[in-house]
Design a protein that fits this description.
This protein is α/β, with parallel strands linked by helices. The chain has helices at 5-15, 27-33, 35-44, 89-93, 116-119, 131-140, 167-173, and strands at 22-26, 49-54, 98-103, 121-122, 127-128, 145-146, 150-151.
């Protein structure tokens, strides 16, 4: 399932719209190998939540920089940093669905983040229905805000895409004639 939590969760939500669906992942699998799934989940705006534990490093595989790692973060694997701008998941999520980017420091490879608790602060304000203002707020954001940054009141994925059939009716559509 590495990087594939969102398509699986989307399938569950489309088949069972009555369920509250929450997909969980990390910054590495969610924004790298599963990045395309994240883009399309935002675009589709399904009525579900994506919770990402963002530690800005591949903590499970020896500390390689992840898509959200700062450009100048120095490590044994990437001396001097990668020089690549970090991916900003909040800016993309504003285009779509419910999303939480949870700061989850990896103390094994990011010991400089021991002081993150002193840097967190409440979000300046919650922006409603104004994507341009929300994008501007994300660009000005330092990555340590707590709270709801943006609320969009547009409807989720149109009902015509949600399954209207029971599971047995769907199975019958795929039955092989004998």
């Amino acid at each position: 399932m590495h990087g594939r939590a969102l398509p699986f969760a989307a399938g569950v939500k489309l088949a069972r719209p009555d369920l509250e669906v929450i997909a969980v992942g990390g910054d590495g699998d969610g924004y790298s190998i599963g990045g395309n799934h994240f883009i399309h989940a935002c675009r589709r705006n399904l009525d579900m939540l994506y919770l990402v534990m963002d530690n800005r490093v591949y903590g499970m595989t020896k500390g390689q920089p992840s898509p959200t790692t700062e450009a100048d973060w120095d490590s044994d694997i990437a001396p001097g940093g990668l020089g690549l701008r970090p991916f900003d998941p909040l800016a993309l999520a504003i285009a779509g669905f419910a999303f939480i980017d949870a700061l989850s420091p990896c103390m094994a490879f990011r010991s400089e983040e021991f002081g993150w608790k002193e840097r967190v602060h409440p979000v300046a304000r919650t922006i409603e229905d104004d994507r341009a203002a929300a994008h501007a707020a994300v660009l000005a954001e330092d990555g340590y805000s707590l709270g709801v940054l943006f609320k969009d009141h547009r409807p989720s994925l149109p009902a015509r895409y949600v399954a209207q059939s029971s599971l047995s009716e769907i199975e019958q559509q795929f039955a092989v004639c004998r």
